[in-house]
Amino acid sequence: MAKTLEKARKAISKKRSGTIDALHQNSRDSKRLHRAQIRDERLEKLASTKRKHDKPLLRRVRFFRHAVSELGNQPLELKVIQSKIHEYVHQYDEEYEAEKKTRRAGRPSSTKEDLLKMKITALEKEYRDGFYMPDLSTEQNIGMVNRFDGSWTFLNSLAWVKISEAGVVKPSSFPPQGL
């Protein structure tokens, strides 16, 4: 149960000597419980929206953490980093092609196919403009990436960069602006 509702319920039960079963529908106490419940639902909805918004960035860090561990937990050169970015950007290509092949001729594309196409084009555009990722060229940041525990708060301690397709590396800050 959520915090505000539990606090209101506890306060009302203390006031009514332990029982809150006999509340009148329009009483102040029932309205207080209703407001607390509405507030808790609203806060939960906001929190779930934020988690959904943060998920792609967390997935990105997990991908590069796995890539670094595959390559021996050593700082990576720009060419290797760009190949891993290319791998990340084109991770949906096979699934998109499979969806495209299953579609009959003359039919409009499916919703899943449209979503995959949008993901692919967004990632390609980001890579052209500057791909936002943790800095994998320093020993210290590699150690921090390896200690990544999946939480959003941990990402603030990492050094971030934007790497463009042309090979330009620009330091960046966290949280990302405009992703």
TrEMBL record:
GO terms for cellular component: nucleus. Residues 1-34 are annotated as: Disordered. InterPro entries: Tma16, Tma16_sf. Pfam families: Tma16. Gene3D superfamilies: Translation machinery-associated protein 16-like. PANTHER family: TRANSLATION MACHINERY-ASSOCIATED PROTEIN 16. Belongs to the TMA16 family. This is Translation machinery-associated protein 16. It comes from Trichocladium antarcticum.
